[in-house]
Every structure is written in structure tokens, then in C-alpha cells.
Write a structure and sequence with these properties.
Shape: globular
Largest sheet: 3 strands, antiparallel
CATH topology of the domain at 276-382: Cytochrome p450-Terp, domain 2
Distance between the termini: 47 Å
Strand order of the largest sheet: 1-2-3
Radius of gyration: 22 Å
Structural class: mainly alpha
Bound molecules: carboxymethyldethia coenzyme *A
Length: about 450
């Protein structure tokens, strides 16, 4: 861990000095105009956050420290027999800002392996919940129970210099990330496999071990987990899970408190829960149509029925993206390579041909194309992971890599408490009448 910390410290010190100079010279420059619609409609398009780990382009999709998903699939280190990137490599890239070598990734893997022991009281907290509790609730309860381990909270209570905040945050992030696969797998085996738990395999990589502890030792499934954990990790800073983690962290809440808060946002159906909703929607369609291979006409009919019931078509649309999500495309490539004849996967592809023109014809949807969640469930079902309520937990394990590396950077750069201004409609009306302006 010492080498990583030293590399991070050097990067962070020079980045913080650079930002200080930048603000000294350009701090008063306008970075955009905020309209009343933006104030009322979810702050779309307002640039108001710095997130160093990744940047989303509406037309191009996500880039992690400048690298697109196809580039990461090519350049990040892999296992000896694998062809998908190891998510540890992406974590290193987001944290240090440079592509890792094989040796760097092995180092991250072994640091995570060494810190992966989960104390028993975490399992006790999960066990205290009724079995029908949603897996995402079990997961955040598990994360909150683990908060007893926070180095940051202990160091803060003892009186720490603010210059040092990043260091226990760094340690907390590694410990938390190391333990998440065990917590996720524990929930999976408890809820769906009669509590028949599987011990970690200390020789496996982070994602491979998650697959193993869940009970999936197929090479294809492990590869899927490596790809899945890589592509779901980060999507710049404004999405609900990343923004919430950052916001809560800005109050100097530690990694556990901040990440659990973010994951409660991920558990919403317009965000990460959409992956469960997609498969639920397809299963319900298959049941209603009494076929596993619905035609394009049947799908179109079902989509219209969904829309006329006032529901969204899950897995389609995005607040920022305006094209097919490259994370959808990466999963489609995986499907073509590993399971080209799978009926459910083919249905996902047929839905992809059918849904965008229908959504486009409504005239109000800004992005009719599929997002990451439109594809993921079908690949999981192929390997036998049919319990779709669990899918968002996998998203959450992956998202830890992005939001926690960002949180380390937040503390290293000394980002302050987040506190945007809000207004009342009454105040807006007075302002429109030219009577009063209370916000300047
Ligand atoms: N199906 C039906 N209607 C949709 C739609 C969809 N897939 N996507 C957007 N719309 C509707 C919106 O509900 C909104 O309707 P109203 O004006 O009646 O309120 C209108 O189209 C305009 O919305 P928008 O500006 O295009 O989209 P937003 O930025 O407001 O919302 C998102 C983005 C993702 C919440 C939305 O597209 C959606 O609900 N998609 C389905 C859920 C989903 O897949 N979420 C996962 C996103 C990725 C992730 O975070 O994991």
C-alpha cells in the first residue's frame, strides 16, 4: 500500500497546487449560464462539480482519465487466460491517473485480498433483517455495519490536521472496496442459496473472487464480472450515486457513510435499479405473450402498452448521453462472443431495434437509445444468475471503485462542504416581477 500512497500523494500535491493557481487567475470567469428551467428541472447541464476520475461526453460516452471503454478493454491488464480488463486496473487508473502495469494491478489485487476479512457483526446485522428484505437494503445495512472500522472517523475524533484527511480516507476506501465482494456474495447466498456460504479464494482477483463466492466458477461468468465491474464503476460526478457520495462526503462523513448514502440513490428505479427493472419487464412480456422469442411487432405492441400505462421503458434514455451507451455496446460484444444464440440476449437485441424509433416518435424523450442497464441482466441470466432483485448489488460493488477514488481526491484537494443555493417559487415570482432579488 505504501507505494500506492506515495504515488497518490505526489499526484495530489501537484494537482492541488495547479488548481490553486488556476482559480487565482480564472476564478471569476463564468462557466455557463443557469436558466430557470435548469433550476426547476434537475439542474441538467449546469457545470457545478469537479470529478477527476471520468468525463462523460453526450455523443461519445464515458472516458476514464481520457480512455474510452474500447481502449480500456484493450489496454488494461487482464488475467493470464482472460480477455476482459481487471477492474483493479481501472481503480488504479482513476486513482493515480495513469495506466497501470501488470505489476501495479497485481499489487492492488494483493492489497485488496489482504484487507478482505469482514468482521462477524456485519453478517449479524444482515442476518437480523427479514429474508424478504431487498438485497440493496441488506447491502447498505452491511456497509453501515462496517462503519465501525473507519480510520477516518477515529482519526477525526482524535483531532487530525485537515491536510491529512486524504490518508485515512485512502485507507478506508481500500478496506471497504476489499470487503464489498464478501458482503455482496453473503447476501446472495443467504437470500437465494439457503445460506450455504462459500469461502473466499485468496488466489483470485477481486471480481473473480466475487463470482466464486456467489457460486459461479464458470470462466465465462468470471470474465463477465471483470467486464461488468469495470464498465459500471464510474460515470462522471453528476449522477445520483456519485453526486450523493460526494455530497455526503463533503460534510466529512467517512467513506462508509458517504458510499452507503450514494448506494441508496443507486437503488432507485431511475438509476441503478433499472437493471432489475429491465429483466422484470422482459420476463413479464414473455409471460404475457407466452413466448421466449417475441417478434418485433409483439415487442412494439408491448412497449406501447407500457407507455400508455404511464410507465417508463426501463433501460432506455439518459440524462446526459445522446447515443447508444458504449457500456451497452461492450456488453453486446461480450454477448456476441460468448452466447450469440441465447434467446434472451437476442430478445435484448431485438428490443434495441424496436424501442428507439417508438420513443423518438413521442417527441419529448431526449435520448431514445439504450443505457448500460438495458443489457446487463440478460448476460447474467445466461450464466444462471436469474434472481434479478440482486442485480443492483453488483452495480453497487462496481460503483465503489469510482465514487471512492473520487472521495479520496475530494479530500486530497481539500474540496469544501457542498452547499448550493436554493430558491422558493415565491422568490422567483417576485424576481420575475422585478421586485426582489434575494440570491445575489
Ligand atoms: N420511457 C418512457 N419515457 C421516458 C423514458 C423512457 N425510457 N426516458 C425518458 N422518458 C420521458 C421522461 O419521463 C420525461 O417525461 P415527462 O416529460 O412526461 O416527465 C420525458 O421523457 C423527458 O425526459 P428526458 O429529458 O429525456 O430524460 P430525463 O433526463 O428526465 O431522465 C432517465 C433520464 C434515465 C431518468 C429516463 O430516461 C428514464 O426514466 N429512463 C428509464 C429508466 C432507466 O433506464 N434508468 C437508468 C439510467 C442509467 C442509470 O443511471 O443506471
Amino acid at each position: 500500500m505504501g507505494i500506492l500512497k506515495d504515488r497518490f500523494k505526489a499526484k495530489a500535491e501537484s494537482a492541488a497546487a495547479g488548481i490553486k493557481d488556476l482559480l487565482k487567475e480564472h476564478g471569476n470567469k463564468k462557466i455557463g449560464e443557469v436558466t430557470l428551467s435548469q433550476v426547476y428541472q434537475g439542474m441538467r447541464g449546469i457545470t457545478g462539480l469537479v470529478t477527476e476520475t471520468s468525463l462523460l461526453d453526450a455523443q461519445e460516452g464515458i472516458r476514464f482519465r481520457g480512455y474510452s471503454i474500447p481502449e480500456l478493454r484493450e489496454k488494461l491488464p487482464k488475467t493470464e487466460k482472460g480477455s476482459e480488463p481487471l477492474p483493479e486496473g481501472l481503480f488504479y487508473l482513476m486513482l493515480i491517473g495513469e495506466l497501470p502495469t501488470d505489476e501495479d494491478v497485481n499489487h492492488v489485487t494483493s492489497v485488496l485480498q489482504r484487507r478482505s476479512h469482514v468482521p462477524n457483526h456485519v453478517f449479524d446485522a444482515i442476518d437480523a433483517l427479514p429474508l424478504n428484505t431487498h438485497p440493496m437494503t441488506m447491502y447498505t445495512v452491511g456497509v453501515m455495519a462496517l462503519q465501525t472500522e473507519s480510520y477516518f472517523s477515529k482519526a477525526y475524533a482524535e483531532g487530525m490536521n485537515k491536510k491529512d484527511y486524504w490518508e485515512p480516507t485512502f485507507d478506508d476506501a481500500f478496506v471497504l472496496i476489499a470487503r464489498l465482494p464478501r458482503i455482496a456474495a453473503y447476501i446472495y447466498r443467504k437470500k437465494y442459496k439457503n445460506g450455504d456460504h462459500i469461502h473466499p479464494n485468496g488466489l483470485l482477483d477481486w471480481a473473480g473472487n466475487l463470482a466464486h463466492m456467489m457460486g459461479f466458477d464458470d470462466h465465462g461468468f468470471r470474465e463477465l464480472m471483470r467486464l461488468y465491474m469495470t464498465i459500471h464503476a464510474d460515470h462522471e460526478g453528476g449522477n445520483v450515486s456519485a453526486h450523493t457520495t460526494h455530497l455526503v462526503g463533503s460534510a466529512l462523513s467517512d467513506c462508509y457513510l458517504s458510499y452507503a448514502a450514494g448506494m441508496n440513490g443507486l437503488a432507485g428505479p431511475l438509476h441503478g435499479l433499472a437493471n432489475q427493472e429491465v429483466i422484470k419487464w422482459i420476463f413479464e412480456m414473455q409471460e404475457e405473450l407466452k413466448t421466449e422469442e417475441p417478434s418485433s411487432e409483439q415487442i412494439a405492441e408491448y412497449v406501447r402498452k407500457t407507455l400508455s400505462a404511464g410507465k417508463v421503458v426501463p433501460g432506455y434514455g439518459h440524462a446526459v448521453l445522446r447515443k447508444t451507451d458504449p457500456r451497452f455496446e461492450a456488453q453486446m460484444e461480450f454477448g456476441k462472443k460468448h452466447m450469440p444464440d441465447d434467446k434472451l440476449v437476442n430478445t435484448v437485441w431485438k428490443i434495441y431495434e424496436t424501442v428507439p424509433p417508438i420513443l423518438q416518435s413521442l417527441g419529448k424523450i431526449k435520448n431514445p437509445w439504450p443505457n448500460v442497464d438495458a443489457h446487463s441482466g440478460a448476460l447474467l441470466v445466461h450464466y444462471g444468475l436469474v434472481e434479478y432483485e440482486f442485480y443492483t448489488v453488483l452495480f453497487a460493488v462496481s460503483r465503489a471503485l469510482g465514487v471512492l477514488s473520487s472521495l479520496i481526491w475530494d479530500r486530497a484537494l481539500g474540496f469544501p462542504l457542498e452547499r448550493p443555493k436554493s430558491v422558493t417559487t415565491e422568490a422567483v415570482k417576485l424576481w420575475l416581477e422585478g421586485k426582489e432579488q434575494i440570491w445575489e
